[in-house]
Amino acid sequence: QVQLVQSGAEVKKPGASVKVSCKASGYSLTRHYMNWLRQAPGQGPEWMGIINPAGGSTTYAQKFQARVTMTRDTSISTVYMELSSLTSDDTAMYFCAGSQRWFDFDLWAQGTMVTVSS
Amino acid sequence: FMLTQPHSVSESPGKTVTISCTRSRGSIAGNYVQWYQQRPGSAPTIVIYEDNQRPSGVPDRFSGSIDSSSNSASLTISGLKTEDEAVYYCQSYDSDIRVFGGGTSLTVL
Fold first, then answer.
1. Which tens digit of pLDDT belongs to each residue from B3-27?
2. In what order do the strands lie in the sheet with A18-25?
């Protein structure tokens, strides 16, 4: 069954970092672009960045460039997103999403809720 | 650039509804437009890609188009069903950015 499954909910203090994982089943990380997006409560999705299938290079949205790192481990079919220097504005549902095309998102994981609170 | 959608639309079962998405800068025809459906508590799912292509499993009641004269894209859903009630987002891109519209809440009543 083709699916993406993310790690569980996180609660973090301001200033901390969070690392979210996304495991692919029946879906090749070397043939699909893998993206990370987030969605704050009541808002639309916001794109954070992409991992390219060939070689695993990354491109980040300018807003997150200084504090996001996206990586992959093809041996276990898992991609990761680490976001540092968290503030309450980072409280959101975080999604990984893949596609054969670089400009869209045709398979989504279930999402991981990240709450930043003191 | 921004993508602007109406905040909400409503229509009766069996009818047809069209949701618009207007691009603020740059040509709507210059980069493909996608549409996503999001039901409460679920992740978005793609219903239209590359302006007017339907992924397998999406009913042909869903169709997409673009209009260069108004610099906008549209999602049309015909034969509305209660299960179509959801928030719909348009999405496009430009080099290293991906942009979503603010979303349109569709009520089927």
1. 999 999 999 999 999 999 999 999 9
2. A3-6, A18-25, A78-83, A68-73
Inform me whether the C-beta atom of residue A3 falls under 8 Å from chain B C-beta atoms.
no
Which residues of A are less than 8 Å from B97 in CB distance?
47, 61-62
Pairing of strands B34-38, B45-48: antiparallel
**SS3 for B73?**
strand
Q: Say yes or no: A5 contacts chain B, CB-CB below 8 A.
A: no
Whether B26 and chain A come into contact, CB under 8 Å, resolves to no
For residues B91 and B101, what is the distance between their CA atoms, to the nearest angstrom? 6
> Over the stretch B66-106, which tens digit does the pLDDT of each residue have?
999 999 999 999 999 999 999 999 999 998 999 999 999 99
- Could you report the per-residue pLDDT of A41-98, keeping only the tens digit for each? 989 999 999 999 999 999 999 999 999 999 999 999 999 999 999 999 999 999 999 9
Note whether B49 contacts A104, CB cutoff 8 Å: yes
**Gap between the Cα atoms of B70 and B27, Å rounded:** 10
Q: Given the structure tokens 């978005």, which residue do they identify? A: B44
